[in-house]
Amino acid sequence: MGGGDIVYRLGDQKAGKSPSWSLSPDPELVEGELFVADDKWGPLTFMKLVHKAFYGGLKKMEKQAASLVEAPSKVTLRKLKVTWDMMALLHEEHSVHEDKVLYPYFESFFPGVTATAQHEHEGHHEQLQAIGALFEGFEKANGDEKTSLAVKIQSALADYSAVLTEHMLMEENHLNPLARKHMPIVMHIEALRKVYEVTSPATWVKLLPFILESQELYGYRVRTLRCLRWAMPERMQQIGRHVYQGVELPLWKRLIVDVPEMVPRGLGGCKILGRPGWERYY
Questions:
Q1: Beta strand pairing status for 7-8 and 21-22?
Q2: φ/ψ of residue 157, rounded to 5
Q3: The Cα angle at residue 39 between residues 37 and 43, in degrees rounded to 5
């Protein structure tokens, strides 16, 4: 279909208008949306959305590592170290979620299907320890040693980013579809509830805000919380407390509009926005 072909305007039909014709391509066709099905998601989409946080965190670390190389100092190190500590914590917990909860479900359908992914997890742990040792060395170094270690840290983080990205893409392309195609929704809910229980509340207080703020699109943040709501509606006010304690206030105010169940009961939710809030689960 060429750029000057006559195209039936699908939008008129959606709006209940009489069909019209145009010598210009339909915007939905140009934007690649005309023949694309709506995105399917469920409770376990949470795991893929955590990957979105990893992607955002890796980009942030890349910029911070470049700043460390340009100006090796306690200030530039501190900024990078804060991000790295959260990324390492998220990586460790996410690996536990997969090894202890998600992979056993996959193995129950297809024995041996997660062997490669589990082996790669072992290599990731070694990388985490090696990079942690570089940070410790930088803090103790002086002068030229800092410059040399800054370059090593940047190189190690680049290698880590490449390895982790390849691993996550493999999971998204080959393992995640198993849940969507073979696991009933009851198992999705059961698995996500187990994921939440494996990690302590003290850790979720740190991780949930970091996940949300590392995701680059607001839609990812809302869907992450809605996945949790789907699986654990009775915990949403607890989850809301975790989120409130860690995210910036403007983001919190946006999120409670789309996920009002996070607001503590009795507070009227979004009164400042002129709409009632969630009162109680039961």
A1: antiparallel
A2: -70, -35
A3: 150
Report all structural domains of the chain as residue ranges with CATH numbers, in order of start. Answer: 1-36 (no CATH), 45-199 (1.20.120.520), 215-282 (no CATH)
- How far CA 83 is from CA of 87, 95, 103, 106, in Å, comes to 6, 18, 27, 31
Cα separation, 157 vs 65, in Å, equals 8
Q: How far is residue 116 from each of residues 48, 105, 122, 187, 272, measured CA to CA in Å?
A: 18, 16, 10, 23, 51
Q: Locate the DSSP E strands across 49-186.
A: none
pLDDT in tens, 169-222: 999 999 999 998 999 999 999 999 999 999 999 999 999 999 999 999 999 999
Q: What is the chain's percent helix, strand, coil content, to nearest 5?
A: 75, 0, 25
Phi, psi of 268 (to 5 degrees): 75, 10
- pLDDT tens digits for range 37-95: 556 789 999 999 999 999 999 999 999 999 999 998 889 999 999 999 999 999 999 99
Contact 154, 92 (CB under 8 A): no
Phi–psi pair at 71, nearest 5 degrees: -145, 80
Tokens representing 17?
A: 């208008």
Rounded to two decimals, what is the model's pTM?
0.81
User: How many angstroms separate the CA atoms of 160 and 118, rounded?
Assistant: 17
Burial of 216 (0-12, 13-18, 19+ CB in 10 A): middle
* Angle at alpha carbon of residue 94, lines to 241 and 108, rounded to 5°: 120
**What's the residue count for the chain?**
282
